[in-house]
Task: inverse folding
């Protein structure tokens, strides 16, 4: 019997949803924001889950994402 085929990216069912990590601790980690170019602690960045199920940090800090989001709303 052939193995079940994984559905295409657009029609992923609940069995293929990626669970975000609950307990991610990055101590003494510093990242550079791609927008303001400042080095900030990892707590100032969010996490995102890519299509290949790898958890990565957000490229922009919370402040830069917030200001760009506020500009779009106006």
Result:
């Amino acid at each position: 019997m052939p193995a079940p085929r994984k559905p295409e990216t657009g029609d992923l069912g609940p069995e293929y949803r990626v669970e975000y990590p609950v307990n991610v601790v990055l101590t003494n980690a510093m990242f550079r924001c791609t927008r303001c170019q400042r080095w900030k602690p990892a707590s100032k960045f969010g996490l995102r889950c890519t299509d290949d199920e790898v958890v990565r940090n957000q490229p922009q800090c919370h402040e830069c994402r917030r200001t760009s989001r506020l500009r779009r709303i106006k």
